[in-house]
From TrEMBL:
The lineage of its organism: Eukaryota, Viridiplantae, Chlorophyta, core chlorophytes, Chlorophyceae. This is Phosphotyrosine protein phosphatase I domain-containing protein. SUPFAM superfamilies: Phosphotyrosine protein phosphatases I (SSF52788). InterPro entries: Ptyr_pPase_sf.
Length: 248
């Protein structure tokens, strides 16, 4: 994955800086000894699926594969015949990419699901891949519930910041490493720029030019960093005094 990242999103980054680098992350409740994490994008085809696959991989690497369960949905899923055909084509295209990333093909081949308002209460952690998706989710919430649910829905990039994920944790290798060695090496190449990503963009799978390949790699690394930080945050939130069950 040797490539040059594109320019960061200056307007969104400046807004994030003005709000403070340390966005408030949603509280989590480990009382059921596991957490269900919902990743949301627009069509439930690519970015959310990629996040679910990489999140699952990092969780398993850390011994939490049976305690952290990802799922996906989309805010604008096309359930027409044409939409289903398009999803079949896209998922077929993604199978080879999934193999390269060590993600199970089933992560991409499952039929897309539409976001429902009740999902905000059914899942422990809600993660949107970009600001537009987050706003599309919150538009369905009644005015009296806006403040509560705005604190429940984070961007994936919120977890890619120095808190909860330090540079040292990204770079660490060996038995106590948060990430497999290859992931760690990939992220170190452009870590400062990856931290500046606010919205994870959807790349084109039909663009085989160097620019298109770079866009795909950029998306993969941005999602990878966000998932690493999310796993780190959820592990750190596990209460040390929770009785009777050890997820490891």
């Amino acid at each position: 994955m040797d490539f040059q990242l594109g320019q960061p999103e200056p307007q969104q980054w400046q807004q994030r800086q003005q709000q403070g680098c340390h966005t408030k992350l949603a509280d989590v409740d480990w009382s059921r000894y596991h957490l269900q994490v919902l990743f949301i994008d627009r069509h439930d085809q690519l970015r959310a699926r990629l996040a679910a696959g990489l999140f699952e991989k990092v969780a398993e690497w850390n011994g939490y594969g049976r305690a952290l369960y990802p799922w996906t949905c989309g805010t604008h899923v096309d359930d027409s015949a044409a939409g289903r055909t398009a999803h079949m084509w896209l998922s077929t295209s993604l199978v080879s990419q999934a193999a390269v990333l060590g993600i199970e093909p089933k992560v991409f081949t499952r039929r897309p699901e539409s976001f429902e308002l009740r999902d905000l209460d059914c899942y422990d952690v809600i993660v949107a891949v970009d600001s537009a998706t987050r706003e599309a989710v919150l538009e369905q919430v009644e005015p009296q519930g806006q403040q509560y649910y705005r604190e429940r829905v984070n961007l994936l990039s919120d977890y890619a910041q120095q808190q909860p994920l330090t540079d040292a944790e990204v770079q660490r290798t060996g038995g106590l490493a948060l990430l497999p060695r290859r992931m760690s090496q990939q992220l170190q190449q452009d870590l400062p720029q990856l931290r500046r990503v606010v919205d994870v963009c959807r790349p084109s799978l039909t663009d085989g030019s160097p620019r298109g390949v770079a866009a795909w790699n950029h998306t993969v690394l941005a999602v990878m960093l966000g998932c690493a930080g999310l796993v780190r945050y959820l592990i750190d939130a596990y209460p040390p005094d929770l009785p009777e069950y050890d997820p490891l």
